[in-house]
């Protein structure tokens, strides 16, 4: 038995209407992942299962510089104390072999009193403690004068030469390590600051990604350059998963010149065009994405000539759509003044919520948005002007009423003059 056809056509049924209705895009919740670069510039990366640990010992100096301060100070102290103890043992052995120690010398004098005038290798070294003190005096060139080496013992002269050479090497390495740790380039990077948030707004009729950078010191960064990278997890058409895919982002400043003149805080602008990884992202999709924008500022320190690098990153929660940085540079009495208290302040501006691709496909969206913004701005100006006009009229009305009251008080009062008449009490009032 054939099924009876419905009276309503299929295209007007519930399934047909549902298939033709435009569906809103469904966005999944963004998974909170660890950021690749922290806000202070440190890399959030842990190295595990390194089998070739000996490679670090091949570059001892760099390893010592990269160590933390507590480990460096422990190694510094241990190295010097060990060298003093080692050569103290050498001086004690020289004195013991030559018979200069206290007990050995007394025993030899008892057996052969004629050896009383024999010269010692090191005068004043009679025990291990005195040998240790003499080792410190030799290596750090203190020389108190109580202990000294003589020219009658070639072995002692050889030990003296070896200790001087080894002591100079230890001093050069350890002091150089301490100097490099105190003069590291990341210390200069502490005064290179970035805005807390990044913004996306329209500039020169283009959707742009912008950040603000600044330098707190008066000494400049020579040849400063800024690089932007987008780090995200991607999957290739072949199915390969790249957990940290780094995509270079071109900045507007890099297109114009090779370096920045970082005299005052600058706004670094990236135009979101077809080559940008942000080209297909709208305001809603940006909040659900797991991308991270890394900013790298490099340059040469003017005072030391050392290359420094400052880093930071912005995740999707730290990117404000439809905001713009407020100006912080003003001219006061012939001097340009920078107000760093407003360094990261932003203000809302009218910005389309769609992606840059949609703006390129439909330029009317941007025109309509700008027209609405202009109309709202004009309406606000009209309301403000009307409110000012009403306030001025009220003030004028209040002022005129007061003047009237004051003038009424100044009017001369009426005065009546009474004149007697014949046969009656008629009074004529004269004003």
UniProtKB/TrEMBL annotation:
UniProt biased composition (Low complexity): 403-412
Compartments where found: Membrane
Sequence ranges assigned to domain Potassium channel inwardly rectifying transmembrane in this UniProt record: 37-184
Keyword Transferase (UniProt): no
Single GO biological process annotation from the record: nervous system development
Residue runs in coiled coils: none
Polar residues bias (residue ranges): 418-431
Main location class: membrane
A molecular function (GO) term: ATP-activated inward rectifier potassium channel activity
Domain Inward rectifier potassium channel C-terminal: 192-362
Family according to the record: Belongs to the inward rectifier-type potassium channel (TC 1.A.2.1) family.
Protein name: ATP-sensitive inward rectifier potassium channel 8
Organism encoding this protein: Perca flavescens
């Amino acid at each position: 038995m054939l099924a009876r056809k419905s009276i309503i056509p299929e295209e007007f049924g519930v399934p047909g209407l549902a298939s033709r209705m435009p569906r809103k895009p469904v966005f999944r919740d963004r998974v909170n992942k660890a950021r690749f670069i922290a806000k202070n510039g440190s890399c959030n990366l842990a190295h595990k299962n390194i089998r070739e640990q000996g490679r670090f010992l091949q570059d001892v100096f760099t390893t010592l510089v990269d160590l933390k301060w507590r480990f460096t100070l422990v190694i510094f102290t241990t190295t010097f104390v060990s060298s003093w103890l080692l050569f103290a043992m050498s001086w004690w052995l020289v004195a013991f072999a030559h018979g200069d120690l206290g007990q050995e010398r007394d025993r030899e004098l008892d057996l052969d009193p004629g050896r009383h005038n024999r010269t010692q290798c090191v005068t004043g070294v009679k025990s291990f403690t005195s040998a240790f003190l003499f080792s410190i005096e030799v290596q750090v060139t203190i020389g108190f004068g109580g202990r000294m080496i003589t020219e009658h013992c070639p072995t002692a002269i050889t030990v003296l030469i070896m200790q001087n050479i080894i002591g100079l090497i230890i001093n050069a390495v350890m002091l150089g390590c301490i100097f490099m740790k105190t003069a590291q380039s990341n210390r200069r990077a502490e005064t290179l600051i970035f805005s807390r948030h990044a913004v996306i707004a329209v500039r020169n009729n283009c959707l742009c990604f912008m950040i603000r950078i600044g330098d707190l010191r008066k000494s400049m960064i020579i040849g400063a350059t800024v690089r932007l990278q987008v780090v995200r997890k991607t999957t290739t058409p072949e199915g390969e998963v790249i957990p940290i895919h780094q995509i270079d982002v071109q900045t507007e400043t890099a297109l114009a010149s090779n370096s920045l003149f970082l005299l005052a805080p600058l706004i670094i602008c990236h135009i979101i065009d077809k080559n940008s990884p942000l080209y297909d992202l709208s305001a809603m999709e940006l909040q659900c994405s797991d991308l991270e924008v890394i900013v790298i500022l490099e340059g040469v320190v003017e005072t030391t000539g050392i290359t420094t690098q400052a880093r930071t990153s912005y995740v999707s929660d730290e990117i404000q759509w439809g905001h713009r940085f407020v100006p912080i540079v003003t001219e006061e009495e012939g001097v340009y003044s920078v107000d760093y208290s407003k360094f990261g302040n932003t203000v809302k501006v009218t910005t389309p919520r769609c992606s840059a691709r949609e703006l390129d496909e439909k330029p009317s969206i941007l025109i309509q948005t700008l027209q609405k913004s202009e109309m709202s701005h004009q309406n606000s100006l009209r309301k403000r002007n009307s409110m000012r006009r009403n306030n001025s009229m009220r003030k004028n009305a209040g002022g005129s009423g007061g003047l009237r009251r004051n003038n009424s008080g100044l009017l001369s009062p009426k005065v009546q003059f009474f004149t007697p008449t014949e046969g009656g009490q008629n009074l004529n009032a004269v004003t």
